[in-house]
Write a structure and sequence with these properties.
Elements lengths: L5 E2 L5 H15 L11 H9 L8 E2 L2 H10 L4 E7 L3 H9 L3 E12 L2 E11 L5
Helix pairs in contact: 1-2
Amino acid sequence: MKIEIRRARIDDAAALNDIYNYNVVHERNSTFESNSKTLESRVKWIEESGDHYPILVGVSENVIEECEKLHYWKLLSRIFDFNTGSRQLCRSLGFREVGVYEKHGQLDGIWLNVVIVEKLFPSNM
């Protein structure tokens, strides 16, 4: 099965909104956001993403390949230090942990640390 990687379209807004809001409401392990997003805000986000910060949809490994094709030289992310599943996934995809932002923000009144991860694309440097 081939997975398509492409830029998000307006008709992706509802699914992206559902995925995001599920985490905000139920999981509480990947964003400091405490309020759900509206469908209108997701549409605006997609419309305003532009060429410099495209929103890509697909599977993680393929998104990484697409970013390399787009001549990005680095991907960055921040992960809650307690989110061991996401940290392991990033390591398995070639990201390295490069630091920690201590007390980066509060979630439900608790200060949380985030681990900074990066993946370099030396061929694009």
